Inverse folding.
């Protein structure tokens, strides 16, 4: 069906037939903020829209997109989100974020109807950086009653790493929860900057591979059922945009909010924030009094994902909801446009690394190969520096 949304105007195609209530839920629109018009007639939540219906969704809250009052209680709002055509007061920002995380956990795109990201009996670990997203996620899941420990990987990026670790430790101490800390220098003999110099690779390249490895290593060794990361809607849409622009078929096939685990080789990985923008997670932290590290990594200029974020921000500003439509629309169609997901092809290729025993498609995993190159080069580099 064709769905035309008004103020701001946007047209989307949605597979039907579908109940009006389900359509609004699918589009993240609060039912009492709009009228739904099917072929010129007003319809209610139980009305079933035909597959070829032409539907208009018309906002009824005056004061423009976002409204002037909290959509749940009518009090003055602290956050408005044009994408949802809604605004919330402080306590309903918290409810809104929890609801979106609940929806992600229980009904993630690309999963079966009955499959949850994780349950209350599972042992869950969340990778935290000290920034707003991962700490918001940890806080939200603890508030929702899940058993969640944290994992911080020290990257050796000067004062930024020191302050980030401090924020994670203060968060864990204040709540009496467990935080694992892995320091790259202590455990693997290099930092992100020295590893980049030794290999000639970009710092973000070395950093990303090291973090992914350390996350998986701890999750597997400590027997966690699922490993979570704080990737949000902006991150996921930017990654998708980058993969589409370059047509990275393999990455497109593997992008998703739930990545299955492989025995003792690779932990199950999930992204419960993929429905929330960074503005929403930042607002959540402010409202909940979470003291996160606001400064960005000083090496962020080398991260190509930022160009894609900036490009999508421009589109979103003129067309609220575009990022969500890009990401959710792709995930809805992923099995058609990138059919490897869910197939066993990749699983069959995965084996244990000859050095470390974790997942790899070659004999030795990319992390162990990187570490070998760093080990060979670092003493030579150290020797060049006069004592
Ligand atoms: S910006 Fe790059 S170097 Fe800094 S934390 Fe992110 S991936 Fe690592
Ligand atoms: Zn409210
Ligand atoms: Zn290895």
């Amino acid at each position: 069906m064709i769905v035309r949304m008004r103020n701001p105007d946007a047209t989307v195609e949605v597979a039907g037939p579908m109940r009006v209530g389900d359509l609004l839920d699918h589009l993240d629109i609060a039912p009492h903020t709009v009228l739904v018009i099917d072929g010129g007639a007003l319809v209610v939540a139980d009305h079933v829209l035909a597959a070829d219906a032409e539907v208009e969704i018309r906002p009824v809250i005056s004061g423009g997109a976002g409204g002037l009052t909290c959509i749940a209680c009518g009090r003055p709002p602290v956050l408005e989100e044009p994408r949802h055509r809604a605004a919330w007061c402080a306590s309903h920002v918290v409810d809104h974020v929890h609801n979106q995380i609940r929806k992600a956990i229980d009904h993630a795109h690309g999963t079966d109807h009955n499959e949850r990201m994780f349950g209350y009996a599972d042992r869950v670990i969340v990778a935290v950086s000290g920034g707003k997203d991962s700490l918001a996620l940890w806080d939200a899941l603890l508030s929702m009653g899940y058993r969640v420990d944290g994992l911080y990987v020290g990257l050796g990026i000067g004062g930024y790493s020191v302050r980030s670790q401090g924020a994670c430790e203060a968060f864990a101490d204040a709540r009496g929860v467990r935080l694992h800390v892995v320091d790259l220098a202590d455990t693997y003999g290099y930092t992100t900057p020295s590893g980049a110099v030794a290999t000639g690779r970009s710092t973000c390249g070395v950093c990303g591979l090291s973090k992914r490895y350390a996350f998986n290593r701890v999750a597997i060794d400590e027997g966690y059922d699922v490993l979570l990361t704080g990737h949000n809607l902006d991150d996921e849409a930017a990654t998708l945009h980058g993969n589409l622009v370059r047509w990275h078929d393999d990455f497109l096939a593997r992008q998703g909010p739930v990545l299955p685990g492989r025995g003792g080789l690779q932990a199950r990985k999930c992204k419960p924030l993929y429905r929330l923008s960074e503005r929403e997670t930042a607002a959540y932290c402010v409202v909940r009094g979470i003291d996160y590290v606001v400064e960005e990594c000083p090496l962020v200029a080398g991260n190509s994902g930022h160009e894609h974020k900036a490009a999508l921000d421009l589109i979103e500003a003129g067309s609220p909801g575009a990022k969500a439509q890009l990401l959710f629309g792709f995930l809805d169609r992923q099995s058609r446009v990138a059919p490897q997901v869910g197939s066993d092809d990749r699983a069959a290729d995965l084996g244990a690394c000859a050095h470390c025993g974790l997942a790899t498609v070659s004999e030795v995993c990319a992390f162990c190969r990187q570490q070998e190159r760093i080990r060979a080069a670092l003493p030579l580099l150290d020797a060049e520096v006069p004592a």
Remarks:
- DSSP finds 14 helices and 17 strands in the chain.
- The two ends are 71 Å apart (CA to CA).
- Residues 134 and 230 are 4 Å apart (CA to CA).
- The pocket of iron/sulfur cluster (ligand 1) is lined by residues 155, 192, 203-204, 207-208, 297, 299-300, 303 (CB under 6 Å).
